[in-house]
Amino acid sequence: MARLTNFLWFSVLLSVLSASEPVFIRNAKDAEASPYDNLLVGVPSFTDYVADRLGFCTGFSRKFRQPLWIQYRLTAEEVQNKIAIRNSRFYPDKFIPESASPKDYTRTGFDRGHMAAAADMRWSEDAMKDSFAMTNISPQHPDCNRKIWKDLEELTRRWALREKELYVICGPLFFQEGIAIGNGTIPVPRAYFRIICDMTPPRKMIAFIVPNQPCSKSLKSLVVSVDLIEALTGYDFFSRFPAEIQKELQEESCFKKWE
Fold first, then answer.
1. Residue 138: helix, strand or coil by DSSP?
2. Helix/strand/coil (H, E, C) string of 155-209?
3. What structural domains does the chain harbor?
């Protein structure tokens, strides 16, 4: 009986600490057929794994063992609908073999930094749980994760409440070789990008590059164009927008439009 009880408890624990099974996207046709709404504006790049889930889509790299980009839709209704409670239990993503482990970050001096913010996923228990999969995590300096990046996440939610519907894309920027954790298998990014698109006409777009270190600058001073991030990464953001609209929006770097 004790063995059965232990087995049942272990099974429950595995189900709690397990990401939902993603839809793997291999081409544009797969993206169009996905049951989720994360890729309606396009796929930034076809990485080793493009894993689409309820709350967000992950473009994951085997080489770097972290997401290269995360993309999701965020609405005012989702921000207001606070159903799920944050549990802070990180776990390897069993659907992606190269997923990092929480232990890879232990005593490294770096936080397990969410790309899709956990607080953006409070509208769903499953989406919240998925946000703690290590395939949504990148090594962030504590001062970045807990201060300037957190401020940007909170600002994004305020804008979602006001503008009603946003698309959010974020990810790491490496620039050049640096330190790595996880026995040298997980490089620490030099910075992170975040792109926000207001989907309510007239549409507008804004992007930020946030250094992965202590930063005393204002968010306003970190604004860049989406064009710059495309040049740095080689990705193609919002590829399903008409070319002329894509060009106009991606040249923008004006914080004032969002004030």
1. strand
2. HHHHHHHHHCEEEEEEEEECCCCCCEECCCCEECCCEEEEEEEECCCCCEEEEEE
3. 23-258 (3.40.570.10)
Which pLDDT tens digits describe the chain residue by residue (259 residues)? Answer: 444 334 334 344 444 456 789 999 999 999 999 999 999 999 999 999 999 999 999 999 999 999 999 999 999 999 999 999 998 899 999 999 999 999 999 999 999 999 999 999 999 999 999 999 999 999 999 999 999 999 999 999 999 999 999 999 999 999 888 899 999 999 999 999 999 999 999 999 999 999 999 999 999 999 999 999 999 999 999 999 999 999 999 999 999 999 9
Spatial strand order in the sheet of 49-52: 23-24, 49-52, 57-61, 66-75, 165-173, 191-198, 204-211, 223-224
CA 161/CA 76 separation, integer angstroms:
4
Assigned token pair, 70:
């995360």
Exposure string for 84-110, b = 16+ CB within 10 A, e = fewer: beeeeebbbbebbebbbeeebbeeeeb
- Of the candidates 82, 100, 231, the residue with the CA atom closest to the CA atom of residue 157: 82
Helices 243-250 and 226-233 pack at an angle, to 10 degrees, of 100
**DSSP type of residue 91:** B
- pLDDT at residue 3 in the model: 43
Query: Tokens 């007239």 map to which residue?
Result: 202
Q: Which amino acid is at 73?
A: R
Max CA-CA distance within the chain?
67
- Which H or E element spans position 74? strand 66-75
Q: How far apart are CA 226 and CA 230, in angstroms?
A: 6
